[in-house]
Design a protein that fits this description.
This protein has 896 residues and is α/β, with parallel strands linked by helices. Helix content is 50%, strand content 16%. An 8-stranded mixed sheet has the order 8-23-22-21-9-18-20-19, sandwiched between helices. Strands 10, 11, 12, 13, 14, 15, 16 and 17 form an 8-stranded mixed sheet that branches.
Length: 896
């Protein structure tokens, strides 16, 4: 709920609202230099330049400048720049003229440019791809532009535009109403009130009672939802100048949910900070004490800290998400909010309404009975009057009634005979709606209140029945007979609503829900809502993929049971919204687990169920397309809608389906899991690999009389490995992986690191021993302590080269060893992109000591025969990793 500003500190925007609310329509149009016939395109462009676009300013707005800053301001690049500055001082500025050397500085700057430019290009590409996808689905507004009605994206709305409003619309900007007809709105996003209120263009706030600007009767604010009726208004504020933009920046339209993936990344950051805070000082102290050069020890400790950081994570996550979005779009699934893909893939519960999802998106009026179950045109005529004259969202039931009446009745004559006086819009607590009509026949001229709604709710406001032309009291016995007939029709799979009327209703003030009393029940409207042929197969696939589907509907139990049986759902346990009332938290937690069908739910009930499931540890998806679905969609971990949904549903959705079909959803879920898997693959493998390197560095630093690797070499190693990991978004995940939802958790990450990090360290230590005691002494001509200083320099260069090559290849091979639980290259293999990237990085790293930059990097001439040793180490490493995987999976269900 928004906090209202103090009168003493009123903003100019609020002052403008108060002034406009008190003006006449003509005065407001004159103030805005607008016309009731709307703007021309030319004038709209001028107004956009003068008042700004209809977008709420946000620091999160994607811009090339922001991408550039994010690309170059990373721990990796910052450390490189620090090292480059130190190297500039020690190798160039503070050395004699003949010894000046800029090669190390140039290499570091080149690495900064490579890393930064790669990240920048990828982020720009990603942003462009996302924007292209979002253009496929946009919320539009009915604007009068150039003298005609046009559907224009809401971000194109400008001050002075005249907008037509109808049920289901989301108000795109702050507006002054010019005209209204039974216009009921929900401003829950602004004031927290769920009950719709009527807005009337001709009313103005009463002087002295005008402090509560959110209740002004002639003003509509951005974020308001039109529940029923129609209206027309002129825009006086857009973007950040709206009350929504000014006072509710935290719930702005582009706000992204804090997904479980976001939480996971934060937890990883905490873990890395903790490890860095322990390991980096330890490396610094050990090397300072054992080598005596504290400056070199500091630089090496900083480089080690960078080596522990998965610096390519932002690029890989973004690439993964965009690739997944594009792939989803090919299957009819548009991703509005990128991070939601992670939750989409990890969802294990899907809540959905049945109409249009499990059933065909078309309802047929099968029967229009009086209370004796006889077909009669009077019942159809009353149903038609109610559905035709209501200005709320004409749902499938209303469309079916109007269509049937068009086939069986002379609707033109009905429209001539009856005029609409007023209406009482539908809401989800009353579960009924009414219209007040006038018979234009001079002999009658009566007013008639016609109401349709759910059976129990209709009986609650009725006291009489019409049977065979007689008006009788609605006794308990007659109630039982009526309900028995409804239950019989429900058992046949028919959805039944009841009709009632009241002649010459006396309005209580203006017509309101209080007038829905003492009604005369007169008949039934029975609808057939057959299940989709694909629904049963789609539900079976979702179940096979570990997703439990729960039906959350406002319909009754009998109809929902019938549909549930037809599509293969377990219907043994069914709870209604009333069953949830009065239960303690433990009882509710149990109820939502044991039941898959919930009936007669209000929007608040749906939201309660979703929150309970989340509290039970589930990742919950919700699929909806109506006004009543918006609260539940906001509560869910991932919200799904369809392109044909009302504006508020599309605006609330994270993911939009171009086809309302669970088969499309199932494909999207598998793609989401693939994205999730490839992201986790990078995080787990990289952290364990880097952890292994750090352990090796600690061991080597404790026993070697020199640094185990130079800081620059360590950073190049990290850059080569990180660059090869950019191929991981193009890898595949096994069918076995895609069958089950995977929730994001960092709890088991330390265990993964402690299993597989030391595995690589074993071979690093073996390599250290081979290099220090056998290979380097043989190549240089003696043990390290027994040779000359010049030979020691050569010894160190060879050692660094040998470990650099071995460490790079083991890091590249660990990708293949840990990407799947089976034996690499035999039981499983990566895509060609990953194979090319990993082997390519290994080959490039191997060739560096033989290239022109070998001297600058201080590499030594390692003989080619050393590669046979590396090959042997890699084979043994893969075998040992496979054995460790076997023991790891004894205690864990999943590897990645």
């Amino acid at each position: 709920m928004l906090k209202k500003p103090n009168d003493s500190a009123e903003s100019k925007d609020l002052q403008r609202v108060k002034a406009i609310a008190k003006e006449t329509r003509s005065e407001t149009l004159a103030r805005l230099h607008a016309s009731s016939n709307g703007l021309s395109s030319k004038q709209a462009e001028k107004n956009r330049e003068e008042y700004g676009s209809n977008e709420i300013a946000s620091n999160k707005h994607d811009s090339k400048l922001r991408f550039l800053a994010e690309a170059f301001i990373t721990p990796f690049t910052l450390v490189l720049l620090v090292l480059a500055t130190l190297s500039l001082c020690t190798d160039y500025i503070f050395v004699p003229a003949g010894q000046k050397d800029l090669s190390t500085v140039l290499i570091m700057v080149t690495m900064v440019l490579i890393s930064g430019i790669t990240s920048f290009i990828q982020n720009v590409k990603s942003s462009n791809a996302v924007n292209s996808l979002l253009k496929m689905v946009s919320v539009t507004t009915d604007i009068i532009r150039d003298g005609k009605d046009q559907e224009i994206p809401t971000d194109q709305v400008v001050v002075g535009d005249v907008i037509r409003l109808a049920a289901g619309d989301l108000v795109p900007a702050d507006m002054r109403l010019l005209s209204s007809k039974d216009l009921f709105c929900s401003s829950s996003s602004l004031n927290g009130e769920s009950s719709p209120v009527e807005k009337i263009a001709s009313k103005r706030p009463i002087i002295g009672q005008d402090r509560d600007y959110l209740d002004y009767p002639n003003i509509l604010y951005e974020g308001t939802t039109i529940v029923s009726g129609s209206g027309r208004g002129v825009v006086f504020a857009t973007g950040s100048h709206t009350m929504f933009g000014k006072l509710a920046h935290d719930i702005a339209r582009n706000d992204v949910k804090n997904t479980s993936f976001d939480v996971g990344i934060k937890n990883i950051s905490k873990l890395l900070i903790t490890m860095t805070a322990i390991i980096a000082p330890l490396v610094f102290i050990i090397n300072g004490l054992t080598k005596g050069n504290w400056i070199d020890a500091l630089i090496f400790a900083i480089a080690t800290a960078v080596g522990l950081t998965p610096e390519m994570l932002p690029v890989i996550v973004t690439t993964n998400l965009v690739k997944g979005s594009i792939e989803m779009s090919k299957h009819g699934t548009i991703v509005k909010k990128m991070n939601s893909i992670q939750n989409f893939g990890s969802a294990d519960v899907l809540c959905t309404d049945k109409t249009g999802t499990l059933t065909q998106d078309k309802v047929v009026l099968e029967r229009h009975y009086d209370l004796n179950l006889r077909e009669t045109s009077k019942i159809l005529e009353l149903g038609y009057l109610n559905s035709y004259y209501q200005t709320g969202m004409k749902n499938l039931i209303d469309k079916a009634i109007i269509e049937a009446a068009g086939d069986e009745l002379d609707v033109n004559e009905i429209q001539r005979d009856y005029n609409k006086i007023d209406e009482i819009p539908f809401d989800f607590s009353r579960r009924r709606m009414s219209v007040v009509i006038e018979n234009s026949d001079r002999e009658h001229g009566e007013h008639l209140l016609v109401t349709k709604g759910a059976a129990e709710e209709m009986m609650a406001v009725s006291n009489r029945v019409e049977v065979d032309g007689q008006i009788l009291a609605l006794t308990p016995e007659r109630k039982q007979k009526v309900m028995a007939k409804i239950n019989d029709m429900n058992d046949d799979g028919l959805r039944v609503i009841m009709l009632g009327y009241k002649p010459n209703p006396a309005p209580v003030g203006e017509f309101s829900t209080k007038d829905e009393s003492n009604l005369i029940l007169c008949g039934f409207l029975a609808f057939l809502d057959p299940p989709k042929e694909s629904a049963k197969n789609a539900l079976a696939k979702l179940k096979h993929d570990g997703i439990n589907v729960k039906i959350l509907t406002g319909d009754n139990e009998a109809v929902t049971r019938t549909v549930g049986l037809q599509v293969g759902l377990n219907v043994d346990t069914v709870y209604s919204g009333a069953d949830l009332d009065g239960k303690n938290p433990q009882e509710l937690a149990k109820m939502v687990e044991e039941c898959n069908i919930f009936v007669k739910l209000s929007p608040e009930d749906k939201t309660k169920i979703i929150n309970l499931l989340k509290q039970n540890g589930h990742t919950v998806g919700y699929m909806g397309d109506g006004i009543n679905d918006a609260p539940a969609m906001k509560a869910a971990d991932v919200s799904i809608s369809v392109d044909t949904a009302v504006d508020i549903a599309k605006e609330s959705a994270d993911i939009i389906l171009l086809h309302k079909d669970l088969n499309v959803l199932e494909k999207g879920v598998r793609i989401g899991r693939k994205v999730f898997g490839n992201t986790m693959k990078y995080i787990k493998i990289t952290l364990s690999s880097n952890f292994g390197n750090i352990l090796s560095i600690l061991v080597a630093s404790s026993f070697l009389p020199f640094l185990p690797m130079l800081p620059l070499q360590l950073l190049i190693l990290d850059l080569l490995y990180g660059t090869s990991c950019l191929s991981l978004p193009f890898d595949t995940m096994s069918d076995e992986y895609l069958k089950q939802p995977r929730t994001w958790s960092t709890k088991k990450l330390p265990k993964f690191m402690f299993y597989f990090g030391p595995t690589s360290s074993v071979f690093d230590i073996v390599t250290f021993a081979l290099l220090y005691f056998i290979i380097c002494p043989k190549l240089v001509g003696g043990n390290f302590n027994a040779i000359s200083p010049a030979q020691q320099v050569a010894f160190i260069a060879l050692f660094h080269t040998g470990w650099f090559i071995e460490s790079l290849w083991t890091q590249e091979m660990v990708i293949h060893a840990l990407r799947d639980r089976h034996l690499p290259f035999i039981g499983q293999h990566a895509t060609y992109a990953v194979i090319l990237a990993t082997f390519g990085a290994g080959i490039i790293g191997t060739l560096l000591p033989f290239s022109g930059v070998a001297g600058a990097l201080k590499f030594g001439p390692m003989p080619l025969s050393y590669m046979w040793i590396i090959l042997g180490i890699l084979i043994l490493y893969i075998l040992l990793t496979t054995i460790v995987k076997h023991f790891y999976l004894k205690g864990e269900k999943f590897l990645i």
